[in-house]
């Protein structure tokens, strides 16, 4: 790993903040695709913050680790804390949101990745070509009460109505076959589907665990790489 890697940057940030002068041998085991739009790099950074803080006995505390996480990337604070949260600012200003039990998803992975900068450039072109004006964001943006209610009650069908990703159109333009995966999922039991982050991973929301297993099996039989997962999940931690 070179100095630009988030794992190295996270470890160095803890050392700098604490005054620690030693080192660590860090091995990263990736369980999500690189450039898959799933925040894998951010999760690696969050795990590193917690791991080296424990290994070195620096005891920086949750508040300081959160502060460091925000300097590493917009998604790192959420990966550090986990759960369900409302993200403001760049997504790094988090407010916990109550979610009852788990929601079940099927993730469809791709062999090829998508570059996040490429997707954002495509989004800019898409907006320019379609004369889409970016609305001024309110000082205190609100979230639909129905969405919060769906999370509180564990109502997957109601939650499905609120799945949205502004980057989805751009990702689909760069990888049109993702649209076929979304359509396949929604015609084989998914309540709704969405491109995860900047893609190309597709996230399909289903009603329950059995539905997730059935849909994953259908996608696999059709030649796609699908796995079933549940969320919310815990943030970075040392077992």
TrEMBL record:
KW Nucleus (keyword) present: no
Domain named GHMP kinase C-terminal: residues: 148-223
Family note: Belongs to the GHMP kinase family. IspE subfamily.
Coiled coil: none
SUPFAM superfamilies in the record: GHMP Kinase, C-terminal domain (SSF55060), Ribosomal protein S5 domain 2-like (SSF54211)
One annotated GO biological process: terpenoid biosynthetic process
GO molecular function: 4-(cytidine 5'-diphospho)-2-C-methyl-D-erythritol kinase activity; ATP binding
Protein's name according to its UniProt entry: 4-(cytidine 5'-diphospho)-2-C-methyl-D-erythritol kinase
EC number: 2.7.1.148
Pfam families, per the entry: GHMP_kinases_C, GHMP_kinases_N
Record domain GHMP kinase N-terminal: where: 5-83
Gene3D superfamilies listed in its UniProt record: 3.30.230.10, GHMP kinase, C-terminal domain
Keywords attached to this entry: ATP-binding, Kinase, Nucleotide-binding, Transferase
UniProt-listed InterPro entries: GHMP_kinase_C_dom, GHMP_kinase_C_sf, GHMP_kinase_N_dom, IspE, Ribosomal_Su5_D2-typ_SF, Ribsml_uS5_D2-typ_fold_subgr
Record organism: freshwater metagenome
Keyword Transferase: yes
């Amino acid at each position: 790993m070179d100095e630009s890697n988030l794992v190295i940057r996270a470890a160095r940030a803890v050392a700098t903040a604490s005054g620690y002068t030693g080192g660590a041998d860090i091995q990263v085991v990736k369980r999500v695709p690189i450039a898959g739009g799933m925040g894998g790099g951010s999760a690696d950074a969050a795990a590193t913050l917690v791991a080296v803080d424990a290994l070195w006995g620096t005891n920086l505390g949750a508040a300081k680790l959160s502060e460091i996480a925000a300097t590493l990337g917009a998604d790192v604070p959420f990966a550090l804390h986990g759960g369900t949260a409302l993200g403001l600012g760049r997504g790094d200003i988090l407010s916990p949101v109550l979610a009852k039990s788990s929601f079940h998803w099927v993730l469809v992975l791709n062999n090829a990745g998508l570059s996040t900068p490429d997707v954002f450039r495509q989004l800019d072109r898409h907006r320019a070509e379609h004369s889409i004006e970016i609305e001024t964001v309110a000082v205190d943006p609100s979230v639909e009460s129905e969405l919060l209610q769906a999370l509180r009650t564990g109502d997957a069908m109601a939650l499905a109505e609120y799945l949205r990703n502004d980057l989805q159109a751009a990702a689909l333009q760069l990888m049109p076959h993702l649209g076929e995966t979304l359509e396949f999922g929604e015609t084989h039991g998914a309540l709704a589907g969405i491109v995860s982050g900047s893609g190309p991973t597709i996230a399909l929301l289903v009603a329950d665990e059995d539905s997730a297993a059935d849909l994953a099996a259908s996608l696999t039989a059709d030649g796609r790489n699908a796995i079933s997962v549940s969320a919310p999940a815990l943030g970075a931690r040392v077992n």
